[in-house]
Amino acid sequence: MRVIKINTNPTYNVLVRDGLLNEVGSLVNQIKSYDRIAVITDSLVEKLYLDKVVTSFKGYSNQIFTYSFPNGESSKCLAELSKIYDFLAESQITRTDLVIALGGGVCGDMVGFAASSYLRGVDFINIPTTLLSMVDSSVGGKTAVNISAGKNQVGSFYQPKVVICDTNVLATLSDDLIADGIGEIAKYGVLEDKGLFDLLLKGKLFDNISEIIEICVRIKDEYVSGDVFDKGKRQLLNLGHTLGHVIEKDSKYTLAHGKAVLIGMFYIAQKFAGSSEIDLILQKIKAVAKKYNMPIDYKLSADELWASAGNDKKRHGDYLTIARPYAIGDCRLENVKLGAPINLTESVKESKFDIEIIPSKLRGSICPPPSKSHLHRLLIMSAFCGGQAVVSNVVLSNDIKATLNALKNIGADFVINKNNVTFSGFKLKNNAVIDCGECGSTFRFFIPICAMLGIKTQFIGSERLGERGYEDIITAMGSKVKFDKTSGLPLNINGNYDMDEITINGNMSSQFVSGIMLGAYASNKKISINLTGQLVSRGYVDMTIQTLKQFGCKVVEEKNSFAIIPKKNDGKQYDLMPEVDYSNLAFWEVGGVHLPIAQDNSKQGDKIVLEIVKKAEHGLAFDIDISNIPDLAPIFGVLLAKLKGTSTLKNCARLRIKECDRLAATCEILNAFGIKASIVGDDLVIVGGTVKGRVIVDSYGDHRMAMTAAILATFADGKVTVKNAQVVKKSYPDFWEDYVTLGGVINVVNIR
């Protein structure tokens, strides 16, 4: 028999073995001799095990009283609790007597609460009859009933005298009830022990069931024994429960607890996705769900679930304490602000509007959106992988929509379901029109992709995009591909670049270099890329290489060249998740919200924001070279504006060819806020000072300028209006919602 000591005050044991129902009377008598014993169960368990438990007391007690209530979560209510009180009174149960809970989690919770409150407390023991209750709910002393406001809202902390787990009873459970317990086991796997996933995924569950129960109980003891009343570490046991309880209630408790917890855990992990560690958690959950036929999706969106979670008992003020996973074995408690809703419906988002900002300090926790750069690459590779690929945590910004539409127009077959894109094949089209909108990535990736696939293609998009130039790719591919002009849009290309090597200027946009690499994979052609000059934005080429390797592509790198050797898969299925976007994370970092990111292997050059923000902590001016990180220039302008002295953003030439002239726009915005800034050649000189409010600033039609103004406004001394604030949808559609979640105070005005 496995005996696990629970180190609460008082202590008690959890006993695990087959056949223990026949020994309940003897085991109880070893603790204390009771005159009167009340056994409470539900209508289903009553038929299976009640007689066996009652019989086990022969020779130990002749005064056994029994009561059963209707099986199911709906019985876990105040009305049924009142009936249990009446039964205990009619049975003349006193403080010297014993109450036994015989059943699953519902029974244990409700009978435990009844025992804790009847006569201000009588002894009770727990005999769990489900997998879920054995691994979780029977241990730790949490007792409760549900009310209309939510699950487990009325209860107490009350420890049993012993917990008796007869593993034989598990053999009678339905697959559905077994799966219900799996959700809690997976929770313990994420919290502490990857080995639990191994036990769940290898072989038959019952081969190792006693070991699994013991591991889960010992883990729970670690969290419970030092925090009985759920004020600190024990709250981590709520991993997945915050959203899981919302799901249960919305389903009117037709979806079992453990399944709801698994969904809740998956949604929470998705919210904070972007690292290899979180990817592993999501993969493990998916694998468990698949093996045990459990859902990982629900009819309510993640946003709707978070909104409903505001009634949770772990709320304090405007904040909700959640258990957030960073990696298996690394979960932390964090406060998430429940911001007031803002009027940004989908119809409003498609309109033009201004944002009125009341300066306030940002704090709390959100997850920045996934990296657009990584997402573009994952989506393109998935389209051509030759098998099925699922890309999760896809934020449908305008730029990502542009790439998805491009893939569709050249022959990709995919389905979008909420935040997931599932690719299932590719059928090449000979002619295509690709609308790039304002997305430079789509434009520069798909020129070489279409040229290497031999697709006659017309590129259309914003006038500004055409002005940003593509002469270098014409020079590199012009021998085989006809371009009808050297600048501007629309651009028509025709031909098939089928050569096995290409020479390009390393100083051209790194996106063209990446586009050639992606084109090699798409066309399944080996190609050598020879560089002249130094390669700029090397980090993003490295990201492409990393993604290629993820799909089995071989990349041989020499001093001034890359050899791309594609390898299509043999039916492999891919489950993919993009990294977080450091360029968007930068806004929150500069705004004072430091979000821990467990992601050390990112190739994003913008990751340097973490070092730069830390360097700024001394408060003194310094210079930043942004030649390889141009997207960070506007928000770094905000950072430098707060420092004492004169700083310089150096080598800003590339800012002039973005969605707007970001060099000029950053200078103008800083000056509008009372910060002295001036352009000297390709540099921006900034004199730190007081950020003034009561200003109206333009977004310049550029998402990064709107977000820059929003962060600068948090330091201002008066109200700020940002015009045409809808432009954030280009890269960060939920920026304003996240701004509010982090404590920003805004009003949506001038909808037009």
Could you list some keywords that capture this structure?
752 residues; Rossmann fold; 4 domains; 26 helices; four-stranded parallel sheet; Dehydroquinate synthase-like, alpha domain; four-stranded mixed sheet; alpha/beta; UDP-n-acetylglucosamine1-carboxyvinyl-transferase, Chain
Please describe what this structure looks like.
Strand 23 and strand 24 (561-565) form a beta hairpin. This protein is of the alpha/beta class and 752 residues long. The strands form nine sheets. It has a four-stranded parallel beta sheet, sandwiched between helices. The protein contains 26 helices and 32 strands. Helix 5 packs parallel to helix 6 and helix 6 (175-191) runs antiparallel to helix 7. The protein has four domains: 1-173, 3-Layer(aba) Sandwich (Rossmann fold), CATH 3.40.50; 174-180 and 226-338, Dehydroquinate synthase-like - alpha domain (Dehydroquinate synthase-like, alpha domain), CATH 1.20.1090; 346-368 and 580-749, UDP-n-acetylglucosamine1-carboxyvinyl-transferase, Chain (Alpha-beta prism); 372-576, UDP-n-acetylglucosamine1-carboxyvinyl-transferase, Chain (Alpha-beta prism).
Q: What is the average of the pLDDT values?
A: 91
Number of helices: 26
* Total number of domains: 4
CATH domain topology of the largest domain? UDP-n-acetylglucosamine1-carboxyvinyl-transferase, Chain
Q: Given the C-alpha coordinates, what overall shape results?
A: elongated
Structural class: alpha/beta
- List how many beta strands DSSP finds: 32
Helix content: 25-40%
Distance between the termini: 72 Å
CATH superfamily of the largest domain: Enolpyruvate transferase domain
The poorly predicted ranges are none
